[in-house]
């Protein structure tokens, strides 16, 4: 796959290293444009559900319209809605399989970032004034991300950040990721 016409979606739990992966990829591929999705807007669950649908449909349509002339790196996208929609809105995003099927041929690579539970907990403890309600359920939500990333129609590459500690480790893994994307 041509790295200069591919959009990349980076998915995974908080504290798995998504931001580090994104920053490193952007430093190595200067043409990537960054986008971070907003939290769902609206007062009621159904409004938030609709907001999410609109965001993801717009993302896919924009990638389709630009036909590889613009390529993005998305800090989270539709896979997170599979995981968090049922938890926070008591609604499974039933529109998602249709969206994925409609846009499955777009030049998109899904990067699933995962990490060992104890390292995620350690990283949360190192952050000041940040808590998360899912900390006791890391394994459950990690598994859900894995399931939905694996069933996605987009080419998926998993990056395990458990042992990525030093800058050379991170850079080496991202260089390998770039080679994996090019080989698709």
How is this fold's topology laid out?
Blueprint: E1 7-11, H1 18-28, E2 33-36, H2 45-66, E3 72-75, H3 78-89, H4 96-102, E4 108-114, H5 117-126, H6 138-150, E5 155-160, H7 167-183
Parallel strand pairs: 1-3, 1-4, 2-3, 4-5
Report on this model:
There is one protein chain. The chain is of the alpha/beta class and 184 residues long. The chain has one domain: P-loop containing nucleotide triphosphate hydrolases (Rossmann fold), CATH 3.40.50.300. It contains 7 helices and 5 strands; from the N terminus they run βαβαβααβααβα. It has helices at residues 18-28, 45-66, 78-89, 96-102, 117-126, 138-150, 167-183, and strands spanning 7-11, 33-36, 72-75, 108-114, 155-160. The termini are close together.
Domain unit count: 1
Distance between the termini: 5 Å
Strand sequence of the main sheet, in spatial order? 2-3-1-4-5
CATH architecture: 3-Layer(aba) Sandwich
CATH class: Alpha Beta
Largest sheet: 5 strands, parallel
């Amino acid at each position: 796959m041509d790295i200069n016409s591919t959009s990349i979606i980076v998915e995974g739990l908080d504290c798995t290293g998504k931001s580090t992966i994104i920053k490193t990829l952007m430093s190595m591929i200067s043409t990537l444009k960054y986008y971070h999705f907003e939290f769902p807007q609206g007062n009621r669950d159904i409004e938030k559900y609709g907001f999410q649908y609109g965001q993801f449909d717009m993302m896919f349509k924009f990638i389709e319209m630009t036909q590889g002339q613009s390529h993005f790196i998305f800090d989270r996208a539709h896979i997170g809605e599979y995981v968090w929609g049922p938890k926070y809105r008591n609604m499974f995003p039933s529109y998602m399989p249709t969206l994925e099927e409609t846009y499955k041929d777009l030049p998109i690579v899904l990067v699933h970032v995962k990490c060992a539970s104890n390292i995620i907990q350690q990283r949360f403890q190192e952050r000041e004034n940040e808590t998360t309600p899912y900390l006791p359920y890391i394994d459950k939500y990690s598994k859900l991300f894995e399931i939905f990333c694996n069933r996605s129609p987009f080419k998926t590459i998993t990056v395990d950040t458990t042992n990525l500690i030093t800058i050379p480790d991170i850079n080496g893994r991202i260089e390998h990721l770039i080679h994996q994307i090019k080989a698709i």
